[in-house]
Amino acid sequence: MVMLTSRHFEADDFLAAQELFLERGWTDGLPVIPPTPELVESMLTHTSRASDEVVGEIPERRRAITAEKIAINAVMAGCAPEYMPVVVAAVEAMCDPASGPHGPTASTRGAGLLLIVNGPPVLALGINSGGNVFGPGVRANATIGRALRLIIMNCAGAYPGAADRATLGHPGKYSWCIGEDESDERWNPLHVERGFEASDGTVTTFWGMSPAQVDEHETRDPANIVGAIANAMTAPAPEFLRGREIVVVIAAEHRETIAGAGWSKDDVRECLHRAVPERTVESPDDFLVVAAGGTGGRFSAFSVNWGVKSGYAAVTKTIEILN
Amino acid sequence: MTSAVEVKGLKVLDPTVDPAPGGLVQASRVSEIGGLTVGLVDNGKPKADVFLKRLGSLLKDKYGVGAVHIIRKDDASTVAAPEILDDIARRCNIVIAGVGD
């Protein structure tokens, strides 16, 4: 039996519920699924957490985020109940002290929260790791990422124009969740590199600035592809790489060339680290290399962290698998 | 505080989290700053030091403040470290902290 303690409101019908939520500023501007007690209870049956259990805290804002509030926002975002463990793990990661959510959810620099899912949940939940990986079309990606944005607004208080003072923001602030394509056994998945078992489901949170796409269609030399990615990172303003982690998403055709030449992810990281200016990215390990994105073009992409690793690191947490 | 909407039909739950109560207690005010030692907290943003140095001069020249200590945080988005807070408490009669960019 789930005990819900959130206050409730009455709305005439579905459309009236939309107006209610929009008027109060509780949405991202898009319609939401009205979080009725029945839907919220269904969401909570997919986690072992009690409804009043605190999953994450933001001490600077004196806010504690319970499983019940996570479930309400996940329903609003359109999540299927099976996605609940991913959303819970993402909140846990985001609120980890190493992740430091207070700054990146408030700053004029306008970070999004990128979620990278690894392990069995990628296939089990149908999380896209292929074509259009940053784009639309897949419910799991669209709604899990959106749930985190609604939680950042409604539970962390980072409403645009209030605590969220972003000058530009970026489209990933609506929703930003990808899976890693673990089908190519030549490369270890991100979670294995970060010390988890391949059989673990994990989610990694990352305070990403808007992703930049790197086009490199000419070369078949892995060093040149990786060099092009490093050049694209360095060109705008190398000082903004200092102390940062950087997510590097390598799509299928670049991957085929790089892995096909016998390069591991370590080789990619070391090549990137040699190519960026000294005293910017501190270690090859600060490049989070992710296999994702489809075929049909020779592209990769990267996203630079909003802040330095020492205060605003990528954090990986285990996704609960219920028996 | 918001109130329930008085209409019938769909029951929907509040998605928001309120801040826990009682987090901040206002320090007692002083009626006169002449002769006091004033702490100014530099949040680490570029040129905060320039602005606060000028502010410190004005406080001394116009209001007769005794001394000004400027204390720098490493990062605008993180809470001042306990040793910084202890240092302020030891050295200053009053402290001014603000948010700026």
Indicate the topology:
The complex is a heterodimer of chains A (323) and B (101).
Chain A: E1 8-11, H1 14-23, H2 37-44, E2 54-58, E3 63-66, H3 67-77, H4 84-95, E4 112-118, H5 120-124, H6 139-154, E5 177-179, H7 190-193, E6 202-208, E7 212-215, H8 222-234, E8 246-250, H9 252-260, H10 265-275, E9 287-291, E10 299-304, E11 315-318
Parallel strand pairs in A: 4-5, 8-9
Antiparallel strand pairs in A: 2-3, 4-6, 6-11, 7-10, 8-10
Chain B: E1 10-13, E2 37-42, H1 48-63, E3 67-72, H2 82-91, E4 94-96
Parallel strand pairs in B: 2-3, 2-4
Brief write-up:
The complex is a heterodimer of chains A (323) and B (101). Chain A has 323 residues and is of the alpha+beta class. Chain A is built from ten helices and eleven strands.
Question: Would you mind describing this structure in some detail?
Answer:
- The complex is a heterodimer of chains A (323) and B (101).
- Chain A is α+β, with helices and mostly antiparallel strands.
- Chain A has helices at residues 14-23, 37-44, 67-77, 84-95, 120-124, 139-154, 190-193, 222-234, 252-260, 265-275; strands at 8-11, 54-58, 63-66, 112-118, 177-179, 202-208, 212-215, 246-250, 287-291, 299-304, 315-318.
- The two termini of chain A are 18 Å apart.
- The mean pLDDT of chain A is 96.
- With 101 residues, chain B is an alpha/beta fold.
- Chain B has a 3-stranded parallel beta sheet, sandwiched between helices.
- Residues 1-7 of chain B have low confidence and may be disordered.
- The interface between A and B is large, with 47 and 25 residues.
- Strand 1 (8-11) of chain A pairs antiparallel with strand 1 (10-13) of chain B, so a sheet runs across the interface.
